[in-house]
Amino acid sequence: MFLHCGVPQGTILGPFLFLLYINDLPNCLQHSQPRMYADDTSITFAGSDVDEINSCINLDLERIRVWLAANKLTKTEFLLIGSKQRLSNFTVNPTANINQFPIKRVSTVKSLGVHIDENLTWECHINELSKKIASGISAIKRIRYSISYKTLLSIYNSSVQPHLDYCSSVRRSCSKTLSQKLQKLQNRAARVITFSNYDRNTDELLRMVNSVKLDCQRLVNKSIMMYKIVNNMVLEYLCSRFVFQSDTLTYNLRDSDGMLVIPHPHTNYCKRSLSYSGVVLWNSVPLNIRQSLSLNQFKTIILTVVLYKFYFVFFYTQLPCKAGFYHFSYSCSYLQH
Questions:
Q1: Which of 96, 113, 149, 265 satisfies CB 3.0 to 4.6 Å to 270 for a cystine?
Q2: Distance between CA atoms of residues 163 and 157, nearest Å
Q3: From residue 304, how far is each of 53, 220, 227, 285, 328 by CA, in Å?
Q4: C-alpha angle 185/190/192, rounded to 5°?
Q5: Rounded CA separation 87/54 (Å)
Q6: What does the buried/exposed string (b/e) look like for 246-272 if buried means 16 or more CB atoms within 10 Å of the residue's CB?
Q7: How would you classify the pairing of strands 108-111 and 114-117?
């Protein structure tokens, strides 16, 4: 078959040429917000009225249709996100069309390796994640008698741990049941690597494999994410969602330097979001740590505090999450001396 356009697969210039190819796509949008990464593009629009959603989305989809036709690309589906109560209250479900053909509505969508469902429960994502982790643990179990302990740790850190770490700061908003599901898998991996029975203490096993519980890991990752946000190391649209207290106050408060304004949540969705929980966490970090001169310095301090001090305070006393933030701040204060 003769091809009139395209780039040979595997070429060095392929990714660069593709980015040039789709670089003007955001220019055709009037109401929606584009989110582009490599060959993965999604558009989002937020609204509380079905008619407004229908009108704005379909207007932009028509513009996209013209762009797709001109650039010979097509593959589209849409996801409607909201609480179960809000979605069930819709008398007429929004519809999306391209060239008068309806776009398929899905209940989950995969974006950059993360499965997003219409209620943001993360259930689908964690179920898929659990399958990958369980598969990795099974592989380790089959070969553990044939290789050294050091090699077992290397395989675990390369085939299992990355799945637990990826997007963990966002996944922190999942339910306790789903969080425990992943924690059980981590505990199982530690038992397999250390050849231990179920009567051994899991905290002790995790220390043996140089790891900590997932709640603690997610806390570290979220702290690092907040440092990047505060210091403008991420995209502008994410930084713009956070406001410094110094920008809203006409007077200075002690230790308020670098602290963020805590939003007033009206729903549990908001309380679990990064916009709220991330701010609460960041404000609990002592001033001298918030003022770290570099990201590497902040990572070193946070890892030292959380993994060696907060680990014992938080997990061995099994305090609730709000107390955890307090003790996180308390543990960090040791570094001030």
A1: 265
A2: 10
A3: 47, 10, 16, 13, 12
A4: 95
A5: 14
A6: eeeeeeeeeeeebbbeebeeeeeeeeb
A7: antiparallel
Task: Give the list of residues 6+ apart from residue 231 with CB closer than 8 angstroms, or none.
Answer: 295
pLDDT band (50, 70, 90) for residue 253:
low
Closest among 228, 229, 201, 221 to 307, alpha carbons compared:
221
Tokens representing 6 are: 């395209």
More confident residue, 229 or 39: 229
Mean pLDDT of all residues in 265-286: 83
pLDDT given at position 133? 94
Torsion of CA 167, 172, 177, 179, to 10 degrees: 50
Q: What six digits make up the tokens of 204?
A: 């002790």
* Gap between the Cα atoms of 105 and 170, Å rounded: 24
Question: Is 25 in contact with 34 (CB distance < 8 Å)?
Answer: yes
Q: How confident is the model at residue 317 (pLDDT cuts 50, 70, 90)?
A: very low
E-strand stretches of the chain:
33-37, 40-44, 97-98, 101-102, 108-111, 114-117
Q: What is Dmax (Cα atoms) for the chain?
A: 72
C-alpha distances out from residue 2 to 5, 14, 74, 138, Å: 9, 19, 20, 47
> Which residue, 38, 2, 4, 47, is CA-closest to 19?
38
Element (H, E) at 178: helix 176-194
- Cite the DSSP H helix spans in 105-240: 123-143, 149-159, 161-165, 168-171, 176-194, 202-208, 214-230, 236-239
Instruction: Please state, in angstroms and rounded to a whole number, the distance separating the CA atoms of residues 172 and 219.
Output: 8
Collect all residues with Cβ–Cβ distance below 8 Å to 188 and sequence separation of at least 6: 137
114 DSSP β-pair partners: 111
The model's pLDDT over 24-83, given as tens digits with 9 standing for 90+, comes to 888 888 888 888 877 778 888 887 777 888 888 888 888 888 887 777 666 677 888 877
In the numeric block, which tokens belong to residue 176?
A: 């306790």
In angstroms, rounded to a whole number, what is the distance separating the alpha carbons of residues 312 and 323? 14
Amino acid at 35: R
Position 141 pLDDT exceeds 70: yes
Report whether 31 contacts 45 (CB < 8 A): yes
